[in-house]
Amino acid sequence: MNYMPGTASLIEDIDMGIKLRTFHFRGRHSATELNPRPEKHLVLLRDGRTLIGFLRSIDQFANLVLHQTVERIHVGKKYGDIPRGIFVVRGENVVLLGEIDLEKESDTPLQQVSIEEILEEQRVEQQTKLEAEKLKVQALKDRGLSIPRADTLDEY
Amino acid sequence: MDLLGDHEENLAERLSKMVIENELEDPAIMRAVQTRPVLQPQPGSLNSSIWDGSEVLRRIRGPLLAQEMPTVSVLEYALPQRPPQGPEDDRDLSERALPRRSTSPVIGSPPVRAVPIGTPPKQMAIPSFSQQILCPKPVHVRPPMPPRYPAPYGERMSPNQLCSVPNSSLLGHPFAPSVPPVLSPLQRAQLLGGAQLQPGRMSPSQFARVPGFVGSPLAAVNPKLLQGRVGQMLPPAPGFRAFFSGPPPTTPPSQPRPPGPGPPLQTLRSQAPMFRADTTHLHPQHRRLLHQRQQQSRNQHRSLNGAGDRGSHRCSQQDHLRKDPYANLMLQREKDWVSKIQMMQLQSTDPYLDDFYYQNYFEKLEKLSAAEEMQGDGPKKERTKLITPQVAKLEQAYKPVQFEGSLGKLTVSSVNNPRKMIDAVVPSRGEDDETKEKQVRDKRRKTLVIIEKTYSLLLDVEDYERRYLLSLEEERPALLDERKHKVCGMYDNLRAKLPGQDRPSDDHFVQIMCIRKGKRMVARILPFLSTEQAADILLTTARNLPFLIKKDSQDEVLPCLLRPFSVLLYHLPPVTVTGLLQQLMNLPQSAAAPAPCNPHLTAVLQNKFGLSLLFTLLSRVEDLQSSEPLTESSQSAQWTEVMFMATRELLRIPQAALAKPVSIPTNLVSLFSRYVDQQKLNLLETKLQLVQGIR
């Protein structure tokens, strides 16, 4: 199986759900051999958000058009999905983009919870993080040191 | 009654009188003779003079219209009025092109569209929309046109010849201008958009004119596309032509070949897959190959899908699309366009230059797998390979931009021709200002620069073998010369001859050897040097070994030199070996002189490299001795003297200080046995641990 680099190999996934694994289904009727759905993709953005949706369009800058997108928030072992609709993502904000294996999708040890619950969990998590950060900064200040924050740095 | 008070019915009459159609009727002209106007319906000659009577114009239009009329179907409602055109559709259209959107050159954005991308098509036949592009219903298919192109255009014409035939277009032109099948407004808009572009632009529409997209998924098509297809593809720009066409054409196209209007896109699909229209002008051999490849890809595609037959595949694909109305928002050609841009990054004229480690690594892997294959007869493991575009050498000459109508040559600053932006002045240093430290630092820097330069030479020389294999017969002597020249250059760099000295000083070489990179470099250079040159290097090293050892204490890189040195030793004549031994052990000139303590030898013996080198050397001596029993008496006397001194020195060294050598040659015992008596031999053995059991 030869592969192409970069976005090029993803382009195949956009509409064709037809994959090699249909080999296994030889016994069945040919109409159901083919995967009737396009590929679901998972996108990780630079601000840490995780989006899951059907990739409809892509261009050379990796600008994406995602259809029926769902923003998935992970906290610990729980996750919650927020349906968002259609997303158009500017390429520079994409960190990574991968295809979701629909068979394995249901195989996770993670537990899905409702939106309100996950948002609450996220808030709690943020708060604890902030407090820990505050303590650390205070401790460093007492010793005369300072760590510059990543978002205030312009250099990469 | 209109404003001027004239009656409206008379207005029309009077207007018609004002415009005199026929010059002959003009009362103002005294004499006029009607002659047949010279009709030259040249391509693009619709810019005929305004003084031509409308008769001429009508005549020009006449014959063309007669042919075009039946095909101009009612369905062209979405098009702006296109006057019937001559054979040169492409040139015509580009003259009438809408003002171009300013996009970046070459790569740019997708073409201007009358209808934005992604607009759901107005017609109901949405799922079959993409299918339509691929296999349109041939509603208005006409029988093949009488060729408007020069007839001697047989099958035997090679693509190169085609380039020079005027008025030729590589895509199947007998079908090109005349068959507009049923097109939806969206498709029309796209065709228009494609037609508007300059030759230099890449766009999906141009890209999609590549024949061979017979509805197969990208996976099947692209490898074919990229692995140097033999088929004729209209190269959208001179720079990219090599990208698509397999055998690079020898003559670059003399005229830019802009794409024609869209219909070929559809017409190609309408042909039965067996016999592709656009291949008629190919050499039959070409066509056969093309056909084969198509079959292959089709088979591949079939096997990929695992579906039984094509028919069921088709209808199930339609099922699939019917269920998902948002599928195929990206047209196949748009997908190809994006992936083409991605693949462009992988284009390289010299992969060994751009991607050295990648190439070598995969070569190694392949060798490994090939070796494994040879051993066991297992099934061939399919390794996933990265698909890279095969590209012939692109034109490399930089041609500065020239402006028309300017007086003199204007210089345009570009990447190939940069302009000086800053006037930076480097203050020159005065000689007296330098302090001692600065001098030392500068000297070291100079040595580093010399090492770098020599390294580049070395890399080039190492690469020669590969180049040699790739080059043609005529080029080879030139390559050899170059290589020799470079090798000499390297040697000169190492043993720089200062003016005023008949013998090059060791200092330069020693400086190089003090630097770790220098040592490694010397180890790599040695195989390329001639024997004398290499021997010279070895002697110098031996002479200065204690100093080098001291400097090497941190790096410990000297042992890398062992291997090339030992290889060299086996080529050296006995005289050199003797001299070398003397240098290495810093033996006094004559045996009779009293032997002071020998720090040189001590240092050598205390160092791993030094000891190993000594042992190798002695082993070589032994080999020489045993292989040449009948030597001249003078030589053998010399030998004996040297060996005597050597053994004496060795005996004197305390054992504890000895380093651990890399390897101990087995023949040293026999060597020493020639020169010393048994007692001393035993001593030597124990000291140097020459006998296996003792350690």
Q: Quaternary arrangement of the chains shown? A: heterodimer
| Strand elements of chain A, count | 6
Helix content of chain B: 40-55%
Count of helices of chain A?
3
Tell the overall outline of chain A: globular
Structural classification of chain A: alpha+beta
Element string of chain A (H = helix, E = strand): HEEEEEHEH
Overall mean confidence score, pLDDT of chain A: 81
Range of strand content of chain A: 25-35%
Residue share in β-strands of chain B = under 5%
| Radius of gyration based on Cα positions of chain A | 21 Å
Give the termini separation of chain A: 37 Å
Helix vs. strand class of chain B: mainly alpha
Uncertain runs of chain A with pLDDT below 50, 5 residues or more?
Answer: 18-35
Outline the biggest β-sheet of chain A.
6 strands, mixed
Question: What's the order of the H and E elements of chain B?
Answer: HHHHHHHHHHHHHHHHHHHHHHHHHHHH
Q: Whole-number average pLDDT of chain B?
A: 64
Side by side, the strands of the main sheet of chain A go 5-1-2-3-4-6
Features:
A: 156 residues; 24% helix; B: 695 residues; elongated; phosphoprotein (chain B); Protein PAT1 homolog 1 (chain B); cytoplasm (chain B); PAT1_dom (chain B)
What does this structure look like?
The complex is a heterodimer of chains A (156) and B (695). Chain A has helices at 6-11, 102-105, 115-142, and strands at 40-45, 50-58, 64-75, 78-89, 94-100, 111-112. In chain A, 19% of the residues are buried. The longest helix of chain A has 28 residues, at 115-142. Chain A is of the alpha+beta class and 156 residues long. Chain A contains three helices and six strands, in the order H-E-E-E-E-E-H-E-H. With 695 residues, chain B is an all-alpha fold. In chain B, 49% of the residues lie in helices and 0% in strands. In chain B, helix 16 (436-470) packs antiparallel against helix 17 (475-494), helix 20 packs parallel to helix 23 and helix 22 (562-569) packs parallel to helix 25. Residues 39-46, 60-95, 101-109, 123-186, 191-282 and 304-315 of chain B have low confidence and may be disordered. The interface between A and B is large, with 35 and 40 residues. Chain A: Residues 28-103 form the Sm domain.
